[in-house]
Amino acid sequence: MQGLQKQPAGMAGFTIVWIGQVVSLLGTAMSNFALTLWTYEVTGKATPLAMVGFFFVTPMVVLGPFVGVLVDRGNRKVMMMLSDLAAALVTVIVLALYAAGNLQVWHLYVTATISGIFQGFQWPAYSAAITLMLPKEQYARANGMLELAGNGSMVFAPLLAGALIGPVGLAGVLSIDLASAAVAILALLLVHVPQPPRSAAGRAGSGNLMTEAAYGFRYIFARPSLLGLQMVFLVGNFFNGLAYAVLAPMILGRTGNDELIFGSVQSAGAIGGVIGGVAMTVWGGPRRRVHGVLLSWSCTGLLGQTVLGLGQALPAWAVGSFLWSFFGPIINGSNQAIWQAKVAPDVQGRVFTARQFIAWLVLPVTQLLAGPLADRVLEPAMAEGGSLAPVFSWLVGTGTGAGIGLLFVVTGGLAALASLGGYLFPAVRDAEDILPDHDLTT
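Structure (tokenized):
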């Protein structure tokens, strides 16, 4: 026990884990960028890129409730390490196939499925770890740090991957990803992540695997405020997901596969996310967390997504990408702080994965719809002489990428309206007053 007690805990321990994640996410983002370029160069279509997203997200959604049970039953630290180890294994598989000259697009569908299964452990385990390692006054800042890690990696990943892919090739970039995963695992080995005490909610939700998996849904459906918040995310994710799935083909299609411009757009978005994450870390978010959710969602759609669709050159795309990402840490950090304060730590795995299931239920649908909608409907309709070109050419232009641009404009406006609509429902608007904090009820 003496060795365990000497391991860093609290904010010091969380910061070590966070540094490991910064390094790991940078490596992952570099390999994802390189594989995106490889896939689009091989196929020239939006659908394969969207399908990679589909095979990644679907297992996370479908298996999420059962994963949540395992997270609550198991060791949170082990669950986080399992996710990092699985990510490293997938990279090894892709690297081996590429080195042998056998890598095909369908292989990425298989590896994305494996990644999605094990990635499902990471988010609920990390969320619960924050609750266990830190006082609730630091939840929003810690979540802002995690958002900062994800977005910070995207600032440098396109630039580094673009600079290295020539000298070291795709294999070299994938090897860097492997090394970064090792850093994340080492960071977890160094710190102490406590296990949660048993709460009344935990006792009420105990049972077999199916019973405990269903408990997360029962918990949320018994609390209209939590369900209402997730419905905002469900609708927002539908409109946001349709656009995000085809961002790469929109930029690459409009620029003739210009890797530098595509990387610059991604970096601009990542810089926006970094600044948003820094703001959330320093500021801690609005006192009324629900404003951070609803107002920021509307700004993401209206100021970010629509501007990206309207743009036809790098300056507009950079601004739109920046704003699209800037509000993300405020949305997610504010929402996480609400849930972490209201839900007892020993049931957060089940409740958070049920919450993820509700919010992400539409993402596999968007991944399936976005590619064909772009390739077969909107892109032909917005080509020179297309059926929609006379109506919307003044807005998004014509030619390759214009149809996807129109999709961005429409879905961005709808996402903004949906989030502002949350204010019409008292259960959502007053969620923080209606729900007691978990430390007042356990």
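The chain has one domain: 2-440. Confidence is low (pLDDT under 50) at residues 1-5.
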